[in-house]
Amino acid sequence: MQSRDSVDQSHPLFGGALSAVLPTSAKDTSELREIPDNQEVFAHEHTDQSLIVELVEYQGQVADQDASRYHFEDIAGSNKALEPGAFEVTSVVSLSKSELSLSDCSSAWMLTGTQCVSKFNEEARNTVTLHLGLFRLPQFSTDVLITFNDPQRISPDSSSAASAETHTEPWTVQDFQRLLQTLTLHNPGLFG
Length: 192
Description:
By secondary structure, the chain is of the alpha+beta class. Helices cover 17% and strands 36% of the residues. Strand 4 (39-44) and strand 5 form a beta hairpin.
């Protein structure tokens, strides 16, 4: 049997301008639906987990140590999860640049939190753990956000309820950390 490391392959992102090692069974959702040009979205083949690599405008007014929380709250707003008790940040840690392939960043952060979100504007709300990786690239006026959505509790009324029953080899935080550590910039022209 092959070890996990021997099958790790770097996956091109944004036409090869970036790359990273994605977890096994990551399916590119752009083959299923329209994805904005500033995003790469991957879904787990069997669970309701997803990964989003997103290029967003650098928020110069936000201090580095607060930037991941800023983006987390922005995502909570998009998820209509801003009411009290609907979102919570459980940890924010600085990532050591010596452990990252993307050494061009001014700083890197990993935030973990939860949000109660509904899918496709449904009434049913699911409790999702969000692991958010943030790479700050002020020289390119860009923040690179990587979000790992890991549903913890799926409402029986949610459209995701069927897939929640088949948790075969879900992605782990270690898979997400490997993605963060292997994110590599090949073409700075990506940032305009």
